[in-house]
Design brief:
Length: 111
């Protein structure tokens, strides 16, 4: 998300935890400036690939692709109603993992 009341790195915030962008907190951008940080992506990836997946249904749309989907999804515990669908989580994980400067890897599947 973009915080229009802030400047610099604080202008760019993770939609799922509201922390500002920093070198040690890599982010992936979705549609219309939505952002998910590496830490939230780790939580989301673990959730949708483990036993903590939820179904978004008509409860909201994915913050990253803006679509309503009835598939496995992750809802932020910090920002209720902020969802990420499994497709966007997987796509974001692949992109984050490809960036060698970040050093992020997909977590193991939890049950």
């Amino acid at each position: 998300m973009h915080d229009h009341g802030k400047d610099g790195n604080e202008y760019f915030k993770c939609d799922f935890c509201c922390r500002g962008w920093a070198e040690e907190l890599p982010m992936i951008e979705g549609h219309r400036g939505s952002l998910i940080c590496g830490e939230c992506l780790t939580l989301a990836y673990s959730a949708v690939n483990g036993s903590l997946a939820k179904v978004m249904g008509d409860q909201g749309s994915c913050a990253l692709c803006l679509q309503y989907k009835s598939t496995a999804a992750y809802e932020s515990p910090t920002v209720p109603g902020c969802w990420a669908c499994q497709e966007c989580i997987t796509r974001s994980a692949v992109l984050m993992e490809r960036d060698n400067e970040v050093g992020w890897t997909r977590p193991g599947i939890t049950s």
